[in-house]
Amino acid sequence: MSADELSDAERRVWARLPAGTDAALRGLSATDLQTLLLSVARIRASRVRPAELLRRWRSDRFVRPATSDPRALGAVEARMWRLLPARFEGVELSPVVPLGTSSAVGPVSQNRIVTTMRSTEVLSDSTNALAIEAADRRLRQPATGEVHLAASHRQLRAQRFGPGMAAHFRLLTLVSSARDTGSGRTQARLLALHLGYWQRVLATLPPSATPRLRFTVFDNPVLAERITDTVLPALDAADRTAASAVPVVEEGDRERGRGYYADAALRITFWQGGEVVELGDGGFTTWTAQLTGNAKERCLVSCLATERLAAHPTEHH
Asked: For residues 222-243, b (16+ Cβ closer than 10 Å) or e, as one string?
């Protein structure tokens, strides 16, 4: 990394170290570097006193407990699992994933990730982790196979989201991966599967919440045709009650996520206090194509913030 690529904080720290430190550290093997960092951590931990622990507990946004009621959250997530189609396999993810899980396949800065000293990082987006699991399973399947995975997990992210926003939060995430069969048919099938599930979840909200599923097509006229002639009719045929309670509407002017998502993106919202509340997001990615080395692999990810849903009254069906 050149000096021009360093932040001001990084340049300040490097300037305080003896000459040659950079070259010495770069020359260490991954195992030796890990040993060095663990040694530093052990020395620093030995100096920590109980009073400092309490101070950090009160002030460190990474370690503060969530404000959500775990009983309400558990009830919401249990209902969501019951609504999930049987073809989705549940995955209980590890709290950590391989180093680079978020930055290697998507345009995400490693500065937004809490990195550990053991060549891992704290899970910050379970869709990335599920995509790796999906790619591993796809490589062990015939070409005609497909993988559908779901996970409910707490994510920890290093960037600041603004006042009142926690550094960690729970998401229920879906990842589907299958081989392209041409004419947008694979994308349409995956999209109908995910949208149909989120329709059923949002249908538990009272009508006054005005839940909506919004989609945006990014420069893919073939997929736009499939949404019109295949996806939307399939949703209506599968569950007319959910489809009427939770419309799927086009959001043609959306630019957020372009470049992160490919072909199409979706957004999960409802109305509260005169404002649109973001519940979730998703879209097609190139992740399993990159991971498997097969450009024909199609991957759809989507997620919903379960704590936000749990904070809103729901109707039981």
From this structure: ebbebbeebbbebbeeeeeebb
